Amino acid sequence: MKKNIIAGLVLTLIAGSAFAAERPMRILIVNDDGCESVGTTSLHDRLRDGR
């Protein structure tokens, strides 16, 4: 049973990596200070710029 779960996870990771080359990663940023707060916007800018 444990081997089946591990094999399923490995196959899922392999299949997911094939799609990763075709489209950019999407990340949801959440913050209770609001979507226009300094922390949220600076994190967004850094992720977008690849820093």
Write the layout of secondary structure elements.
Elements (H helix, E strand, L loop, with lengths): L1 H19 L17 H12 L2
Structural class, please? Answer: mainly alpha
Strand content: under 5%
First-residue to last-residue Cα separation: 42 Å
Q: Which radius of gyration do the C-alpha atoms yield?
A: 17 Å
> Major beta sheet, specifics?
none
pLDDT < 50 stretches: none
- Share in helix: 55-70%
Average pLDDT over all residues? 78
By DSSP (H or I, 4+ residues per run), the number of helices equals: 2
Question: What's the helix-strand series?
Answer: HH
So what's the overall shape? elongated
Q: How many strand segments?
A: 0
Feature tags:
elongated, 51 residues, mainly alpha
Would you kindly provide a written description of the structure presented here, covering whatever features stand out?
- This protein is mainly alpha-helical and 51 residues long.
- Helices cover 61% and strands 0% of the residues.
- It has helices at 2-20, 38-49.
- The radius of gyration is 17 Å and the shape is elongated.
- The termini are far apart.
- The mean pLDDT is 78.
Quick overview:
Helices cover 61% and strands 0% of the residues. The chain is an all-alpha fold and 51 residues long.
